[in-house]
Amino acid sequence: MENNARRREREFRPRLEIGGDRDMDFVNRYRVNRTTAQELVELLGQDLARSERGGKTISPETKILVSLRFLAKGAFYSELADTHGISRSSVSRTVHTCVESVNNNLYNIRYIL
């Protein structure tokens, strides 16, 4: 009981959304326009909508943005985690899951990680 009293409550960082940036900033950051990103959410959202273990669930939109940023810039996981408000291990799982979903659902695109 005493350990639980000293335990800090978890804090979650705010997450970026598709509608959050100016159009030019969005294209510079993700290398696709907002419409294409939204289409990817519609196409892959079902695959990516599964619940995560433990804390706050990561939305399909966030998963796609993280993966697009990684594929566009080759950013470090720590940078992606800070930018999108998720952990580095979540970034790793998210990129892998999203690329797998693209490979399974979009037949004209193939990524190898």
Short description:
It comes from Dreissena polymorpha. The protein is mainly α. It is built from 6 helices and no strands.
Classify the secondary structure makeup into a structural class.
Answer: mainly alpha
Q: Which shape, going by the Cα principal axes? A: globular
**How much β-strand is present in the residues?**
under 5%
Topology pattern, helix = H, strand = E? HHHHHH
Number of helices: 6
User: What is the mean predicted local confidence, pLDDT?
Assistant: 82
N-C termini distance = 45 Å
Report the strand count: 0
Measured on Cα atoms, how large is the radius of gyration? 15 Å
As a percent range, the share of helical residues equals 55-70%
Which spans of ≥5 residues are poorly predicted at pLDDT below 50?
A: none
Largest sheet: none
Structure description:
The chain is mostly helical. It has 6 helices and no strands. The protein has helices at 2-6, 23-30, 34-48, 60-73, 77-84, 88-105. The relative contact order is 0.15. This is Nuclease HARBI1. It comes from Dreissena polymorpha.
Topology, element by element:
Layout: H1 2-6, H2 23-30, H3 34-48, H4 60-73, H5 77-84, H6 88-105
Helix pairs in contact: 3-4, 3-6, 4-5, 4-6, 5-6
What are its keywords?
Nuclease HARBI1; mainly alpha; 113 residues; 6 helices
